[in-house]
Each structure stands twice: as structure tokens, then as C-alpha cells.
Specification:
The protein is mostly helical and 240 residues long. It has one domain. Helix content is 78%, strand content 0%. The protein is globular, with a radius of gyration of 19 Å.
Length: 240
Amino acid sequence: MSNNLKIFLGSFYLIILLVFLYLLFSFIEINRLDDFSYYKELQVVLENLIGSNLYLNLLIFFFFCVIWVALLGFGSPILLISGILFGKWVGTFISVISISIGALALYSIANFFFKDLVKELLEKKFSKYIYLFKKNEFYYFLAFRLAGGLGVPFGLQNILPVIFNIKKRNYLFASLIGLTPTFFIMNTIGSGLNLYIKQAEKFNFTNLLLTKEIYIPIITFLIIIIISAFIKNKIFRTED
């Protein structure tokens, strides 16, 4: 593939990303984000919308997530939204499936169009991990996912395996398994936020934190961070 074609395709990809983000945020009333009643209105609208046709909305959300992640979208907002819309169980299921597929799509795009650029930017920084992934790419990529990507931003996590040349099958199944614990916690928080918005008359941060649907998953999330640090030190410890 010629450099001119790669530049054209890469530019087209970035244009799609910018248009997608513009359309997404154009539907949000930015001037009302500090108004708690706005969130209660949204909660009622979304609950009625989702309840009217659950399966269609799951399908729409699925494709939205795939496209969002493939376009380098953030992971955490999607997880909270899926918990708010579908609850912790269904939300976890749909977000794990869709985001894993979206991440695979992003990995495939980056590996096909931007492989040389990714290697130029990242290979030197993460070269100490290459030999680990060559030993058992599924095991180490699974550990990488369970460890929260070693602190690497989510979009970059999905692209980073380009330098390890991971098989797509291993990439997908390691993502499905490795992302589930954290995704469940985030969806649980989203579900708890939805319940709080429904029941509260006005926003109070202290009361929000003292809600068991919020503080229990937060504590669990902190435990996962500790476990992630342990995984990083034990499995990904290398000699500099």
C-alpha cells in the first residue's frame, strides 16, 4: 500500500471520528449539566425509551459501542451508560461483547493502516514486554487486560498489541475475559447512579457515596486496582 493511500485513509478515518464526536455531543444540553433536574428528566426519557423496545435498543447500543471504541472513544463513560440503561447484568454483558469487538476492530485498523507509525511511537517504550508476549500472547494479553492495561489509556491499550503482533483470536478472547471484572464494577456503579437519580430529590455527593450501590463497587474497584498492581509487578516485571 502506497504512502499516499495510507495518508488518505488515515485522514478519512480522523474526519469520521471528528464528525461522530460532533454529532454525539450536539445532542447534549451543555448548559444544563449542572442542573440535577436535567438528569432526572433524562432518566425518565431513557427508561421509557429502553422499556419500549429492549432488544432493538440493545442492538443499537451494540453497534454504537463498536463504532465508538473503533474510533478511539473512551471506555469508562460507555460502561456507566450501559449500567444506567440496562442494569448491571445486561449492561455488563452487552458492553463486554461490544467493546471487545470494537477494540478488535480498532486493533485491526491500526495493524493494517498504521502499523509502522504505531511501532515507531510505541515499540521502544514497550520493547521490554515484547519477549513476554512472544512466550504466550494469550496469557500475557489476558493478564494485561486484567491489570487494567498497566495504566495505559484505554484507546492506546487497544492499539498497543500491534507491536506484539497478537493473533486476532487471542486478542478477542483475552479481551472478553480480561475486561469482564472491571466492566461489571463500572456497570454496577452506573446502575447505582440510575437508582440514585430516580430516588433523590436533589443531588448530594455525600449521600451518593453512602449509597451501597455506589460504595460497594467502588471498594471492589479499589481492590481490583491493588490486584492489578500485583499482576503488574509479578507478571510484567522485567529487567530494565
